[in-house]
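Per reviewer request, we include the raw input and output of the structure prediction for the construct analysed in the revised manuscript.
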Amino acid sequence: MERNLSSYTVVIPVLNQLHYTRQCLESLTESGTSKDAILVINNSSTDGTGEWLEHNGYRHIDNTVNLGCGGALTQGALAEDTEWLFFLNNDVVVCKDFFQRLIDSAVQHKLDLVCPAMVEVELDYNFEEFSAKAVTSLRSIVRNGAANGVCILVLKSLFYEVGFFDTDKLLGGHEDSEFIIRIKRQGFKAGTTGYAFLHLFGSVSQKAMALEAGVSKHGDHLYFYRKMGMGWFARKMYRRTKRRLLRKCATAELKARGLTLHMERREGAWVYL
């Protein structure tokens, strides 16, 4: 039976930050995404987020308590029955045909988990114009083995093989990293594609959820590594291997295309990562 490549749901966990949520949702609909394909998990916001979502016709689940990132992501995954699931930060804007581009890349490159290319920090440039040119130039480029939690695409069936996101609130924002590591440890393929671009402002809801859970950045990192079974040496090798992979990819991309799949915009200048 042929798969329906348009069958997908975008799950977006939020905690307050209505300005970013509104900007994100408007970007999604402008990129060609139907409101019916979007599910917002509202983790007990107090800034009118739930009321705004209701008034503007966005599907949402209102939690009476903050379930944390992992809890919200798993809640969204369990609530939907589409073939593909996207897990997206709320402080982003996306390029045209964003989600279909990611699905196409997953199919073409046989990736079990795929993430988009991105620019971070300052949106002081014409994102629509830039992303149109960038996806044309970088459409065939893939960083095999590299992934991030800003936007994750997976087949829902994958969860039944590797499990869902860890709902341990003490992970405090590292639920996505734990999930990606778990997928790779079990032999599944992850990668980042240049065929879809987003701009990230700074993971504002994820930081807010971690802060409300009382998890500090330092303690969060140590707890995450312990939970992954990584001692001091394993942590050092993990970080070193990751840095080498990203540096190798960035060098090759910059040489071949003059752009990279991960960039920052700071004080009017481009930083290639």
